[in-house]
Amino acid sequence: MRAIIFDFFGTLTDPAAEAHRRASFAGTAEVLGIPLDGFWAVMAETFPERIIGRLGDTRHTLLAVARRCGVAPTDEQIDAAVAAQNRGAEQVRRPRPGALDLLDQLRGEGWRLGLISDCSSELCEAWPTTPYAPRLDAVVFSWEEGHRKPDPRLYATAAERLGVPASKCWFVGDGGSREHDGARRAGMRPVLVTNAAYPEADGLRSDPDPYRPAAVVNDLLELPNLIELPNLIE
């Protein structure tokens, strides 16, 4: 095995932050003059469109969402809404405790590191400024690629960008978006991170994966011990 490909939300990010995702939209909704419940409902409804780039960048996405909520915002409102949305998104993507040190450790040991994330425009636009960016060798975002997990093209693209055959890649994630079955079908070795210490995040995975891989850790920081096992075969 030569590479490790990670999921992002709930895997590299703090799982506890997922419980605050709805609250992270409060500032955006307020600026647009939309009740939070209504804004949240439309954001959830448009999730499948947003994560494959169908609504465009953050500015165009918020404009489309506002219109679906029956609001016609001014340019100034949209400017303020984008700023508020980015502030909220930054809160949700805070690193899991110890995750950045783990990435540094794995790179120091010679692993190629990648990422596959089902995400909307906010993460893609902010990515170069995040602490994750310099620690990963290749990233694949659903918003940029136009398709979402478990689409096999995402896994093939990640392996290609890493310069490593899929059969030489681990895939590590918390089990949303049927990502482990997708990794298995792509020829990778999937690892489930159960996040057992984060009950507040339980049930928040989008499109949870019915397939459970043989390789399981309760916390991401247990990963080095697992990948050192010489005979672990999926």
What's the gist of this structure?
By secondary structure, this protein is of the alpha/beta class. Helices cover 42% and strands 12% of the residues.
**What would you call the shape?**
elongated
**Share of β-strand residues:** 5-15%
Q: So how many helices? A: 12
How do the strands line up in the largest sheet?
3-2-1-4-5-6
Average of per-residue pLDDT values: 94
CATH topology of the largest domain: Rossmann fold
By CATH's scheme, which homologous superfamily of the largest domain applies?
A: HAD superfamily/HAD-like
SSE order, one letter for each helix or strand: EHHHHHHHEHEHHEHEEH
Largest sheet: 6 strands, parallel
CATH top level of the largest domain is Alpha Beta
Structural class of the helix and strand makeup? alpha/beta
What is the number of domains?
2
In terms of per-residue confidence, which ranges show pLDDT below 50 for 5 or more consecutive residues? none
Distance between the amino and carboxyl termini: 13 Å
Instruction: Work out the radius of gyration.
Output: 18 Å
Provide an overview of this structure.
β4, α11 and β5 (189-193) form a beta-alpha-beta unit. The mean pLDDT is 94. α2 (26-32) runs antiparallel to α6 (75-92). This protein is α/β, with parallel strands linked by helices. The protein has 12 helices and 6 strands. A 6-stranded parallel β-sheet has the order 3-2-1-4-5-6, sandwiched between helices. The protein has 2 domains: 3-16 and 93-227, HAD superfamily/HAD-like (Rossmann fold), CATH 3.40.50; 18-92.
